[in-house]
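At this stage, I needed to go through a protein sequence along with its fold in token form, as given directly below:
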Amino acid sequence: MTLRWNLLLIIGLIVAVQHTSVFAALHEPLPLDHWAYPLLTQLIRRHSLVELRTNVRPSTRGQIAQSLLQADSTATDDPVVQWLLTKLNEEFQAERRLLRGLRQGQSGEWSVAWGG
């Protein structure tokens, strides 16, 4: 192989590994002592997050991000809900961006399988 092909192969492997790790982060469970759980509980109790349940834990970063994306489309005048959503959206920004990209790549409804 030539030097050019070796370089392309290495770059391709690096991209593949990074791509895999980004998707793996979606399935990473949030530690049970993470600061986000009390905020999530408040949003669930205020009916601002419909996809998550307070009695099912741990949640994955992807599940939380998907629920936050759906909450973004629901306008609210409640300043507490707005503050909670802002803090959580900052924490899960990378996952939300990835899921938004997946959604834009498909037509119609979208979802991510959260297999065990």
Q: What stands out?
A: The chain has one domain: 3-104. The chain has five helices and no strands.
